[in-house]
Design brief:
Layout: E1 7-17, E2 25-30, E3 51-54, H1 67-71, E4 77-84, E5 91-97, H2 107-111, E6 117-120, E7 122-125, H3 126-135, H4 137-143, E8 146-150, H5 158-170, E9 174-179, H6 185-191, E10 197-201, H7 207-214, H8 219-230, E11 235-241, H9 249-262, E12 266-273, H10 279-285, H11 299-310, E13 316-318
Parallel strand pairs: 2-8, 8-9, 9-10, 10-11, 11-12, 12-13
Antiparallel strand pairs: 1-2, 1-7, 3-6, 4-5
Length: 319
C-alpha cells in the first residue's frame, strides 16, 4: 500500500518579496506557532489547522444574501448587528459567528459568493511547492534571491521543510528559514546543511518577562542561536521593537551583548517597529485572544536603538 504523500500547510505564499532575505524571494508562510505574541501581525498563522475567517467589508448582508445561514450544519451562523452601507447608506444586517459551535468545516465559505467567509490554510505537496518555486528562478538568479520558508513557525512542520530545502539545494536555489528558534534542536540541526540563512527572531532577553507576555521562556531560543553560530550557520537577527516590552535602552543593551557573543555568524540585525495592522485580522478570526494595541514607536526612538547597536559594532537596518 502506498504511503500518504508528504504535505505542508500554508496560510500565504508571496512572490517578489524583498524583506525576507537577500534579493527577490518567494516567501512561503506555514501555519502553526507555539508562541503567543500579542502584537502578532499574522494571527491566522497561529493555529496548526485550516480555519474559518470572516471579512466584514465583503459581506453582502443577510437581506441580500444570507446563504451561509442555511448551509451551516451546526447552526453557528445567525443574523447579527446592522451597519450602514458605505455605498448608499442603506442598512446591512451582518452575520454573527458562534465560534463555540463552528468546527471549520468550510460549508459556509463554499457558499459565500463574495468570499467574505473564507478558509485559511491550504495543504501542498513538496512537488507543488517546487513548481511554484521554479517559476521565479530567473528573478532569483538576477537579484541574488531565493526562497524563504516562514510562518508561524515553519519548523513545527520539520519533515516538509527539510524536503523542500533539500530539493532547493539540488537545484542551486538560495534558501532562508524565518524562525522563532523555539523548536527542538534536532529540527534545526537537520536543516543546517541546506539552509543558507536563518532569519532569527529575538523578542526579549528577560526570560520571565518573555514567558509572561509570549507564553514561553527564552532559554531554548538563545541556546539554539548559539548552536547555529557554533555550527557555522549564518544569521540575520530580527528584533520587533515593541512599546513597553523591549524598546528601552536597557533591553537593547542586552540584545547587543548577546548578538556580539554570536560573532561573525550574524550578518545583520533587522529592527521591525511595531505596527497595528494585524488587529483587523483578529477581527476576521473572531477569537478572544490578547491583542496589543499601542502607539507605534517613534522614528526617533527606533533610530536611537539602531545607533545603540551600531555603537556596539553591529550592522543594523530598519524594516
Amino acid at each position: 500500500m502506498k504511503g500518504k504523500e508528504l504535505t505542508g500547510k500554508f496560510y500565504d505564499i508571496q512572490g517578489f518579496s524583498v524583506h525576507d532575505g537577500p534579493g527577490i524571494r518567494l516567501t512561503l508562510f506555514m501555519k502553526g506557532c507555539p508562541l503567543r505574541c500579542p502584537w502578532c501581525h499574522s494571527p491566522e498563522s497561529i493555529s496548526f489547522s485550516t480555519e474559518l475567517n470572516w471579512m466584514e467589508v465583503k459581506c453582502l448582508g443577510v437581506g441580500k444574501c444570507g446563504k451561509c445561514l442555511s448551509v451551516c450544519p451546526h447552526g453557528a451562523i445567525s443574523p447579527g448587528r446592522t451597519k450602514k452601507s458605505l455605498k448608499d447608506n442603506s442598512d446591512i444586517q451582518l452575520i454573527t459567528l458562534d465560534r463555540s459551535k463552528c468546527d471549520d468545516c468550510g460549508a459556509c465559505a463554499q457558499a459565500c459568493p463574495t468570499k467574505a467567509l473564507y478558509m485559511c490554510g491550504t495543504d501542498y505537496t513538496v512537488e507543488q511547492i517546487m513548481e511554484l518555486i521554479r517559476r521565479d528562478v530567473p528573478f532569483y538568479r538576477h537579484s541574488g534571491g531565493g526562497i524563504t520558508i516562514s510562518g508561524g513557525e515553519c519548523l513545527c512542520q520539520p519533515k516538509f521543510v527539510l524536503e523542500v530545502l533539500k530539493r532547493c539545494k539540488e537545484e542551486n536555489i538560495h534558501t532562508a528559514i524565518d524562525t522563532t528558534g523555539y523548536v527542538d534542536w534536532k529540527h534545526i540541526e537537520a536543516i543546517l546543511p541546506y539552509t543558507d540563512l536563518f532569519l532569527y527572531d529575538l523578542k526579549n532577553m528577560d526570560s520571565e518577562l518573555h514567558k509572561r507576555v509570549i507564553g514561553v521562556l527564552n532559554e531554548r531560543i538563545l541556546k539554539n542561536a548559539r548552536k547555529i553560530a557554533a555550527a557555522g550557520g549564518k544569521l540575520q537577527i530580527r528584533i520587533p521593537v515593541i512599546p513597553q516590552f523591549n524598546d528601552s535602552e536597557q533591553s537593547f543593551a542586552a540584545f547587543g551583548q548577546f548578538i556580539q557573543e554570536l560573532g561573525d555568524a550574524v550578518e545583520i540585525v533587522q529592527l521591525l517597529p511595531y505596527h497595528s495592522l494585524g488587529t483587523v485580522k483578529y477581527e476576521r478570526l473572531q477569537k478572544n485572544a490578547p491583542i496589543l494595541v499601542a502607539k507605534p514607536p517613534s522614528e526617533e526612538l527606533v533610530e536611537a536603538r539602531k545607533k545603540q547597536l551600531e555603537d556596539m559594532g553591529l550592522r543594523v537596518m530598519i524594516h
